Amino acid sequence: MDLFDKLEGRPSPLGPFTSAGYGYYTFPKLEGPLGPEMKFNDKDMIVWSINDYLGLGSNEEIKKIDTEATAKYSLSSPMGARLMTGNTTEHEELEKELADWVHKPAAQLLNFGYQGIMSVIHALVDRNDFLIYDELSHACIVDGKQLAMAEKSVFKHNDIESFKKQLYRAASKKKDNSSILVVTEGVFGMTGDLGILNEIIELKKEVPFRLLVDDAHGLGTLGHDGSGTGTQLKCQDGIDIYFGTFAKAVALIGAFVASEPRVIEFLKANVRSQIFAKSLPNPIVVTARERVKMIRNNPQWREKLWDNTLKLREGLRKIGYNVLPSESPVTPVLTQGSTELCQDIMRKLREEHGVFVSGVAYPVVPRGIVLIRLIPTAAHNDEHIEKTLDAFAAIKDFVMDATNKLSA
Ligand SMILES: Cc1ncc(COP(=O)(O)O)c(C=O)c1O
Asked: How far is the CA of 207 from the centre of ligand 1 (A)?
């Protein structure tokens, strides 16, 4: 069979969302300057779907820095991979600043979080090793696992007994030259709950292993200094390799890992997605340095983010919605229902109330569950929150009717 013909029948992980809702439920175009107020299909929207947690994406000072850095360096420069011709002092300084921020001695920049972490996992373990990861890990960890030569096992989400079982199993099979790498997340991005990092780290006393934490959603949002989930949970020292991306609170592109100097030195020579790829353009690196500095110097942004998060959540709960007990700004509203209900909720909020949210249903989550995910940011204000709560209140009966019909 022709490969291209076969592709037409191959299901996508997004199921009916992919083609039926193109441009609306998938690949929607939010237009106008980035921020909590944007246009969708020419209509004004209050947006709760972008991970610009600290509002940096709409910060005027940052926009100026971006423009100046681009004028100074051009987006082309430097050319080549870091290892060859793409290294600059700016890149090295940013690495030092990132390491300092997340309380680790060294860091390595990654062009993209997704490929970066995949490639880091691939580089870290060999065929004698064991890789243990949480079942709800982000796709980049799952894909990193596919690349890794190690023996893999998965533990039930945040279930310490399940983790122990996999850890003891690996320990019992270990040879002298075997090592164990455990991978989990600081914040699970769909549900907002934190990884059980302290419980996992405690088990290092019984079975030695190294821990890699993907803290994409924790960086900038958690910890007294924004250094993430490890700081928030007071266990940053127990995280052996810390991963953060610029794609969320830093509102940019790029990512990094931070660890001991010997590990970073090894990764710089072995992470294939960096060795064989062009390095980050200088304007990105320059603005990343400024953004990190600004995040560290402006803790009030994080306070505003949390203020907004708590107001939104409390309001949704008061109306009667089931807001999952998220410990991060990610605000998931759970209801029972079909894919159609999920689409109806998104459509009603957009068309009737000018509120833009994203939702997922089967096959992204188990059948019968609808998860509407709101991402509050420091750039939202009280009016955005009030209008959104009014909108959720207005569709409440519709949602309840659909849910009740399902369980009748
Ligand atoms: C938990 C998690 N890890 C990794 C990534 C990938 O990062 P990037 O967007 O920098 O490729 C994401 C999404 O951005 C994420 O949510």
From this structure: 29
Q: State the angle between helix axes of 396-407 and 339-353 in degrees (0 to 180), rounded to the nearest 10.
A: 170
Q: Give the CATH number of the domain where residue 355 resides.
A: 3.90.1150.10
Pocket test for ligand 1, best of 50, 140, 157 (most atoms within 8 A of CB): 140
275 and 309 in a common domain: no
112: closest CA among 133, 134, 135, 143? 143
Q: Measuring CA to CA, which residue among 236, 200, 379 is closest to residue 301? A: 379
What residues pair up with 332 in beta bridges, in sequence order?
373
Q: Which structure tokens are listed for 403?
A: 């849910």
Same domain, 341 and 271: no
Query: Closest residue (by CA) to atom 3 of ligand 1?
Result: 216
Q: Give CA–CA dist 130/214, Å, rounded.
A: 18
Domain count, the chain: 2
Range of the domain at 306: 3-54+299-407
Instruction: Specify whether 27 is located in the same domain as 93.
Output: no
Does the reported pTM lie above 0.85?
yes
In the numeric block, the tokens 């934490």 are attached to 213
For residues 292 and 305, membership in a common domain is answered with: no
| pLDDT tens digits, one per residue of 133-185 | 999 999 999 999 999 999 999 999 999 999 999 999 999 998 999 999 999 99
For residues 291 and 397, state if they share a domain: no
- pLDDT tens across 20-70, in order? 688 998 899 999 999 999 999 999 999 999 999 999 999 999 999 999 999
Contact 96, 107 (CB under 8 A): yes
Ligand 1: list residues with CB < 6 Å.
112-114, 138, 140, 185, 189, 214, 216, 245, 247, 255
What span, in angstroms and rounded, lies between the C-alpha atoms of 144 and 131? 10
Q: Give the residue from 297, 314, 335 where a domain finishes.
A: 297
Q: Quick one: 317 and 352 in the same domain? A: yes
Mutate to test the pocket of ligand 1, among 98, 114, 274 (most ligand atoms within 8 A of CB): 114
